[in-house]
């Protein structure tokens, strides 16, 4: 379903097939391309013209390697449009989640990877300084149901977002949104120990909402799901709505950056803004008032 704004925006139609709507951009020239014109590259998809230019630019040794190995990496990528980053995240998180269920070692794995604000302020809490827990928390869960629901959400969202953004942007969205969730927990609920990928997943939902709205798609369904899940986390006890809130805010900011830096010549600005956002999150959590931690 599309809105009149989407239909009237020519940037939302394939440049080679003007009658075909699409959400996907060529990762080289940043023009909109339909599924027929897409060739999966190492990061995102490539249009036929950019693929042709890429092949012309290959050295004789690269061409020889492509012939020897049946087309090389480009051909292999073109045959596989799978969201590989999503699959890797699913595999790692599921493996760790299943190990958590084992008696004896499961609890130790959880304690080694979960997140508490105390691990950021050793002088105040006496705990070791382990800031990497702000990301490792994404890979541990509070039981099989928690793991299964989050992995289902990751699989569903990844099928849409990874091909749309490309692997690098997609992974950045996932990790920085998860970082944002941990920062929100440290500020708003510093005494809590949290587990789960919900911060990253809420960031992905917010990004899908922002990007969809930007291109004129009907995003009502996404908005309803996002609101229901957020309210559920606030109402039901034992769920870290703070991580959800942090993920939503950061995911929305990242999506805004992506929608404003779509063109190829803006890529450097995109990377600078993402780096600046990450640094800002770290600065914010570094200057949390000590009273919050002691409380």
Structure write-up:
A hairpin with a 4-residue loop joins strand 1 (39-40) and strand 2 (45-46). The protein has 2 domains: 4-79, no CATH class; 84-294, Rhomboid-like (Rhomboid-like fold, Up-down Bundle), CATH 1.20.1540.10. The strands form 2 sheets. It has a two-stranded antiparallel ribbon with strand order 1-2. Strands 3-4 form a two-stranded antiparallel sheet. It is mainly alpha-helical and 295 residues long. The longest helix has 22 residues, at 144-165. Helices cover 63% and strands 3% of the residues. Mean pLDDT is 82; it is low at 64-80.
Query: What is the overall number of helices?
Result: 15
Q: What's the shape?
A: elongated
Distance between the termini: 49 Å
Describe the largest sheet: 2 strands, antiparallel
Helix fraction bin: 55-70%
Q: From N to C, what is the helix and strand string?
A: HEEHHHHHEHHHHEHHHHH
β content, as a range?
under 5%
Under CATH at level 1, the class of the largest domain stands as Mainly Alpha
- Unreliable spans: 64-80
Q: How confident is the prediction overall: mean pLDDT?
A: 82
The oligomerization state is single chain
- How many structural units, i.e. domains? 2
List the SSEs and their pairings.
Elements: H1 4-8, E1 39-40, E2 45-46, H2 48-56, H3 60-68, H4 72-79, H5 84-100, H6 106-113, E3 115-116, H7 122-125, H8 133-136, H9 144-165, H10 167-188, E4 193-194, H11 198-214, H12 220-235, H13 241-260, H14 267-286, H15 290-294
Helix pairs in contact: 3-4, 5-6, 5-9, 9-10, 9-11, 10-11, 10-13, 10-14, 11-13, 13-14
């Amino acid at each position: 379903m599309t809105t009149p704004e989407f239909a009237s925006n020519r940037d939302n139609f394939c440049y080679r097939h003007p009658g075909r709507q699409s959400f996907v951009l060529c990762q080289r020239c940043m023009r909109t391309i339909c599924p027929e014109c897409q060739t999966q590259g190492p990061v995102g998809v490539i249009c036929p013209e950019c693929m042709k230019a890429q092949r012309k630019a290959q050295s004789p040794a690269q061409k020889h390697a492509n012939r020897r190995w049946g087309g090389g990496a480009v051909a292999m990528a073109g045959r596989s449009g799978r969201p590989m980053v999503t699959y890797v995240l699913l595999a790692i998180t599921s493996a760790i989640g299943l190990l958590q269920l084992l008696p004896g070692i499961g609890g130790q794995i959880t304690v080694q990877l979960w997140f508490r604000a105390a691990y950021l302020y050793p002088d105040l809490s006496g705990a070791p300084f382990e800031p990497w827990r702000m990301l490792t928390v994404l890979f541990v869960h509070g039981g099989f149901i928690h793991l299964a629901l989050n992995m289902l959400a990751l699989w569903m969202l990844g099928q849409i977002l990874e091909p749309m953004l490309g692997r690098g942007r997609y992974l950045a969205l996932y990790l920085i949104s998860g970082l944002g969730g941990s920062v929100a927990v440290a500020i708003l609920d510093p005494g809590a120990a949290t587990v789960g990928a919900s911060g990253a997943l809420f960031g992905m939902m917010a990004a899908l909402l922002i990007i969809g709205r930007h291109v004129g798609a009907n995003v009502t369904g996404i908005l309803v799901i996002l609101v229901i899940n957020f309210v559920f986390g606030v109402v039901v006890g034992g769920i870290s709505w703070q991580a959800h809130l942090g993920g939503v805010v950061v995911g929305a900011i990242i999506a805004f950056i992506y929608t404003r830096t779509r063109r190829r010549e803006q890529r450097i600005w995109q990377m600078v803004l993402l780096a600046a956002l990450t640094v800002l999150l770290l600065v914010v959590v570094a200057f949390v008032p000590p009273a919050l931690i002691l409380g």
